[in-house]
Task: inverse folding
């Protein structure tokens, strides 16, 4: 979906396909048929943007087989789909029964991460629509914090610098300008937007910037205006923003609130949980840890890294951080010029919701994704952007 900003530039809105796990190229093609095209039809649009997730094997198949890459592009066009952004965070196994800490491997100190992201860039350069010259790829925020020492930090810096050089060369070769955005996430070496300033300014290349995920922003209790202003002052490019909402519990000391939160404690994904105290931010690596005894202070609200559907906040006594998304979006695209031109709805946790809230069939999932995109569309038009055909 495309929107005209009042300054005349185009803002792209997509939804991320990591909600439909697939490890192979055949699986990706099935996604387009079974999920993406039905969402487009529900929205009544001739064209729908998707933030494509390509696992290692799928990306490798595309970059080593030009005919396969041409076939994917043809299939996208046939189904009324377009790609200007990729989700390069998960490497493989995102549909596994247990993902948890595995999603952070390999990290930016490992050569496999550089190789994979280079593959993604080469693929995206060929998938961009003919009238689009800029693409974006989000990636993990360097590494999970516990194994990240100075030696690995140096290796990651070198890898990202090498990637920037490769992106420059790709631009010269194809005319397509691609940028990579580190995506701050609780528990990682870069947990907040503030944490991103030092490594990104040290790299100092406009092709390496940040991806602002509004669920992660909210989980870390960052004020959107303060965070985005700091990025602007540091001249850190906002490559893309993922529009998502976290789980919010206003009164976590109450038994009924604990019980409601426990329904979201599930075995597949990591749900980092945070609270803001007078002494600063406190947290646990997972929701279950927070609920066990006194691991986390409960005098102040809790927020958990659980991407809840944008259009359907959890029932009381819980809610979502949709207000943080609204505030961030206002700052991102509501001013005289957009801070980013790539927006991506990323609710990958539909099948991790409490059983009674999960979609029971493809049609229900398509309905839910379409409802999220409709909400995002309305937020954009309320900010003065005009939806394009």
Result:
């Amino acid at each position: 979906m495309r929107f005209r900003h009042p300054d005349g530039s185009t803002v792209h809105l997509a939804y991320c396909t990591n909600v439909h796990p697939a490890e192979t190229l055949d699986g990706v093609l099935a996604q387009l048929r079974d999920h993406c095209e039905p969402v487009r039809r529900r929205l009544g649009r001739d064209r729908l943007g998707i933030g494509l997730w390509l696992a290692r094997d799928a990306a490798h198949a595309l970059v080593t087989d030009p005919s396969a890459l041409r076939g994917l592009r043809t299939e996208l066009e046939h189904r009324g789909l377009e790609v200007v952004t990729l989700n390069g965070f998960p490497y493989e196994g995102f549909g596994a029964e247990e993902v948890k800490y595995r999603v952070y491997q390999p990290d930016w100190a490992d050569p496999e991460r550089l190789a994979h992201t280079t593959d993604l860039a080469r693929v995206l350069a060929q998938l961009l629509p003919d009238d689009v010259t800029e693409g974006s790829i989000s990636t993990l925020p360097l590494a999970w914090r516990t194994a990240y020492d100075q030696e690995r930090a140096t290796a990651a810096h070198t890898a990202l610098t090498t990637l920037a050089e490769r992106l420059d060369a790709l631009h010269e070769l194809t005319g397509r300008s691609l940028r990579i955005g580190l995506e701050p996430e609780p528990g990682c070496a870069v947990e907040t937007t503030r944490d991103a300033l030092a490594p990104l300014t040290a790299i100092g290349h406009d092709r390496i910037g940040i991806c602002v995920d509004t669920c992660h922003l909210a989980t870390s209790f960052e004020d959107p205006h303060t965070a985005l202003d700091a990025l602007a002052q540091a001249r850190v490019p906002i490559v893309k923003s993922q529009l998502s909402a976290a789980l919010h519990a206003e009164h976590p000391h109450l038994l009924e609130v604990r019980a409601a939160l426990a329904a979201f404690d599930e075995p597949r994904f990591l749900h980092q949980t945070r609270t803001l105290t007078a002494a600063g931010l406190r947290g646990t690596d997972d929701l279950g840890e927070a609920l066990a005894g006194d691991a986390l202070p409960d005098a102040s609200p809790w927020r958990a890294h659980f991407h809840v559907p944008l259009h359907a906040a959890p029932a009381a006594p819980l809610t979502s951080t949709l207000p943080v998304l609204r505030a961030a979006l206002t700052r991102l695209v509501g001013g005289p010029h957009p801070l980013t031109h790539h927006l991506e709805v990323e609710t990958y946790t539909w099948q991790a919701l409490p059983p009674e809230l999960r979609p029971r069939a493809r049609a229900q999932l398509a309905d839910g994704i379409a409802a999220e995109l409709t909400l995002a569309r309305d937020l954009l038009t309320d900010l003065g952007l005009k939806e394009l055909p």
In short: The two ends are 8 Å apart (CA to CA). The chain is about 40% helix and 20% strand.
